[in-house]
Amino acid sequence: QEYVGTEIWSAPEVLIDDIISDKADIFSFGLTLWEMLSLDHPNIPSVSDSSMDSSTWSQDSDASIMECTSTGTPINDSVMEQSFTPGQKPKMPADLGPEYDVIIQLIDFCTIEDCTERPNAEQVLKFIQANRKK
């Protein structure tokens, strides 16, 4: 059975061809929550992290290929290898207030690197229910 997914949202065990369970989807869910919170893609440096300014980057929505618009050519593989870190939990944005503590805890819970320690879907649901504001 082959796993189908996108590397930047994949769990570490997926990327190293280890045993894959439903907990790989929990890791991806955690990264999706992170993406919604940070308004950025996980495990790809933001333009502000890059040595290039924002006018040099664009997203080709048809092919989902990042390109350097100053040259119109795709970024070469060596650049992506240096900046692309799939299977890791990205850093949280530094400017989040205490009102985000519960969602940060949920993201941390879902993106535990060791899949045997990562929660299953039922545990995630229980966490959400226990922390829901009434």
Could you explain how this protein is built, in words?
This protein is mainly α. Helix content is 36%, strand content 7%. It has 2 domains: 1-44 and 86-134, Orthogonal Bundle (Transferase(Phosphotransferase), domain 1); 45-83, no CATH class. Strands 1-2-3 form a 3-stranded antiparallel beta sheet, with no helix packed on it. Strand 1 and strand 2 form a beta hairpin. The longest helix has 16 residues, at 23-38. The protein is globular, with a radius of gyration of 17 Å. The protein starts with 11 loop residues before the first helix and ends with a helix. Mean pLDDT is 73; it is low at 47-84.
Order of strands in the sheet with most strands: 1-2-3
Q: Helix and strand string, N-terminal first? A: HHEEEHHH
Backbone CA Rg = 17 Å
Give me the number of helical elements.
5
Model regions low in confidence, pLDDT < 50 over at least 5 residues: 47-84
Question: Cα distance, first to last residue?
Answer: 42 Å
Overall outline: globular
Amount of helix: 25-40%
Assembly state (oligomeric): single chain
Examine the coordinates and then state which fold CATH places here, giving the name of the CATH topology of the largest domain. Transferase(Phosphotransferase), domain 1
Nearest-integer average pLDDT: 73
Strand content: 5-15%
In total, how many beta strands? 3
CATH class of the largest domain: Mainly Alpha
CATH superfamily of the largest domain: Transferase(Phosphotransferase) domain 1
CATH architecture descriptor name of the largest domain: Orthogonal Bundle
Helix/strand/pairing category: mainly alpha
